[in-house]
């Protein structure tokens, strides 16, 4: 007997046979709910037989038969009534468990978030994307859902989504492209590190999204709630359906502030800050300027996170300010990293360690922040040793820069597009989905093992554009564009100097400049000039406009079908 728990009240599974009833009772179930019509299969017992034998084991049975693909509103009501009335826990079944799970999902529509319903079903092994629209409509059959269709739908109006749309239109200006995003504003997030050091103002990093959607593309200002790739459809809030010929998925990732107990209540006050949010980065600078000694903590959660160097960038720039003001010697600085090392690419660790020593920073690896009390200025970490032993350690602080855990957006995690870890599953070279040939993904949301940075998205966009156009028959090239995992992390080790880390898959260094111009293993003033003065206009005026200096993709021959 195979059982999959949906809730405390209900578990589901495939067809039960009379010989399974003793095991059902032994497992603690009190009722059986049959959703498979009699006579659907030659080997199934009738409901009358199930009900008669179930009584002998003290089990109550209820019959709510549903024909595959024909779940009526009345069926959902009958199922909900049965679950309400039957003794619990209940074991429900059909041929595979899918119809029972579908009935449960529709009965929960309107009382639970769609992502929670789809996520529960997915955890049990059932893909309900085909009924997502109906769930979004409160479980009722929707006969008048507004629909539209486009050649290419881009989900996400961040760096990756806009860059991909711009790359496509730069190559084929007649394409019908729509970008879907609920936001009003678009942010240049790499600038927030410099906001936290007083180099940029917050306003320099924010512009209206509508003003930066590539010319020729349309913007739909709405949130995506689900995907139905079997029907080439994206479902938006309000049950609006957008159909596509090709789909690009680039909504970024979820910055999960609530995953740290007490953090949302104290952000932006009590000395608690983060450069990972637009409205907090300037508070970082305020704290750094006002701190005249004491304890400053800088945290980093488990990977993956966007811009893995950003947590220590904030630390180095803060230390440089304190050094300039003469207060560094009175300040205890500690870097508490959930990971095992300072930086993921080993070649860059030695030059970074020179600054760690110069600033007198204490390094604490295997420390993961899980709780904070802002008013009392105390933070708690789970410290994991090499042997896996976990202990709770407490730190007091005067200032703490927090980097929250990061995860796939909920509507991605529960979708058919997600792989085992919840990120969109792609071929790491072509960025094409591993299951759906007309779907591509780029940016922070996909599961290729690269650094999640804007620089990575800049290199990924032309790869997606070229490969997608080839799929559409709009390219005569016999090659596939290939992404090599490129990412860049300009490590701001002091004001005016940067270690320009550039690397690809496997931590291989991929420097863009000759050593005589910028040596990527040494702090460089020219690299600082690049980040402060050149990269912002390159972002706004090139990357988001389909211009691709130093971003042309590599190519490989398409393998023969023979």
UniProtKB/TrEMBL annotation:
The protein's name: NAD(FAD)-dependent dehydrogenase
List, alphabetically, the CDD domains matched: PTP-bact
Q: Which keywords does this chain's UniProt record carry?
A: FAD, Flavoprotein, Oxidoreductase, Quinone, Transit peptide
GO BP: any one term: sulfide oxidation, using sulfide:quinone oxidoreductase
InterPro entries this protein is in?
BLH_phosphatase-like (IPR005939), FAD/NAD-bd_sf (IPR036188), FAD/NAD-binding_dom (IPR023753), Prot-tyrosine_phosphatase-like (IPR029021), Sulphide_quinone_reductase (IPR015904)
Q: Where is the Beta-lactamase hydrolase-like protein phosphatase-like domain?
A: 5-110
Q: Which cofactor does it need?
A: FAD
Q: Where is the FAD/NAD(P)-binding domain?
A: 151-269
* Molecular functions per Gene Ontology: FAD binding; hydrolase activity; quinone binding; sulfide:quinone oxidoreductase activity
Q: What is the lineage of its organism?
A: Bacteria, Pseudomonadati, Pseudomonadota, Alphaproteobacteria, Hyphomicrobiales
Does the record bear Chaperone in its keywords? no
Q: What Pfam families does the entry give?
A: BLH_phosphatase, Pyr_redox_2
């Amino acid at each position: 007997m195979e059982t999959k728990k949906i809730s405390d009240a209900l578990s589901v599974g495939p067809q039960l046979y009379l010989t399974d009833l003793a095991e059902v009772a032994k497992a603690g179930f009190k009722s059986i709910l049959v959703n498979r019509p009699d006579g659907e299969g030659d080997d199934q017992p009738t409901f009358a037989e199930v009900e008669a034998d179930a009584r002998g084991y003290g089990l109550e049975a209820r019959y709510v038969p549903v024909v595959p693909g024909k779940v009526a509103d009345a069926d959902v009501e009958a199922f909900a009534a049965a679950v309400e009335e039957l003794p619990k826990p209940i074991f429900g079944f059909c041929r595979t468990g899918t119809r029972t799970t579908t009935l449960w999902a529709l009965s929960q529509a309107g009382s639970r978030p769609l992502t929670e319903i789809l996520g529960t079903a997915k955890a049990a092994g059932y893909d309900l994307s085909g009924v997502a629209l109906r769930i979004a409509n409160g479980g009722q059959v929707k006969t008048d859902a507004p629909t539209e269709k486009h050649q290419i739908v881009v989900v996400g109006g961040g760096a990756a989504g806009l860059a991909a749309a711009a790359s496509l239109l730069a190559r084929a200006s007649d394409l019908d492209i729509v970008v879907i995003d609920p936001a009003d504003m678009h942010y240049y997030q790499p600038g927030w590190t410099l906001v936290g050091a007083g180099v940029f103002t917050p306003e320099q990093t924010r512009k209206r999204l509508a003003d930066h959607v590539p010319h020729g593309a349309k913007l739909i200002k709405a949130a995506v709630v689900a995907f139905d790739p079997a029907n080439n459809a994206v479902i938006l809030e309000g049950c609006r359906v957008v159909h596509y010929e090709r789909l690009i998925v680039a909504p970024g990732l979820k910055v999960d502030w609530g995953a740290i107990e007490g953090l949302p209540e104290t952000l932006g006050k009590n000395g608690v800050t983060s450069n990972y949010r637009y409205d907090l980065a300037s508070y970082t600078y305020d704290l750094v300027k006002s701190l005249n000694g004491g304890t400053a903590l800088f945290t980093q959660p488990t990977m993956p996170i966007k811009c893995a160097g950003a947590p220590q960038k904030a630390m180095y720039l803060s230390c440089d300010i304190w050094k300039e003001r003469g207060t560094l010697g009175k300040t205890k600085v500690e870097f508490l990293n959930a990971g095992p090392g300072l930086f993921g690419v080993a070649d860059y660790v030695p030059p970074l360690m020179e600054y760690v020593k110069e600033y007198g920073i204490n390094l604490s690896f295997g420390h993961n922040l899980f709780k904070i009390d802002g008013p009392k200025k105390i933070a708690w970490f789970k410290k994991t040793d090499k042997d896996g032993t976990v202990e709770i350690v407490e730190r007091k602080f005067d200032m703490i820069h927090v980097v929250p855990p990061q995860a796939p957006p909920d509507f991605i995690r529960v979708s058919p597009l997600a792989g085992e870890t919840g990120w969109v599953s792609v071929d790491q070279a072509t960025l094409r989905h591993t299951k759906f040939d007309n779907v591509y993904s780029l940016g922070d949301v996909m599961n290729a093992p690269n650094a999640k940075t804007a620089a990575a998205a800049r290199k990924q966009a032309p790869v997606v554009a070229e490969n997608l156009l080839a799929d559409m028959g709009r390219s005569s090239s016999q090659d596939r564009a290939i992404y090599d995992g490129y990412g860049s992390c300009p490590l701001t080790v002091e004001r005016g100097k940067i270690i320009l880390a550039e690397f690809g898959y496997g931590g291989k260094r991929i420097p863009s400049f000759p050593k005589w111009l910028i040596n990527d293993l040494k702090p460089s003033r020219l690299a600082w000039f690049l980040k402060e003065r050149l990269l912002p206009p390159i972002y706004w005026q090139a990357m988001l406009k389909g211009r691709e200096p130093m971003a042309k993709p590599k190519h490989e021959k398409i393998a023969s079908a023979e």
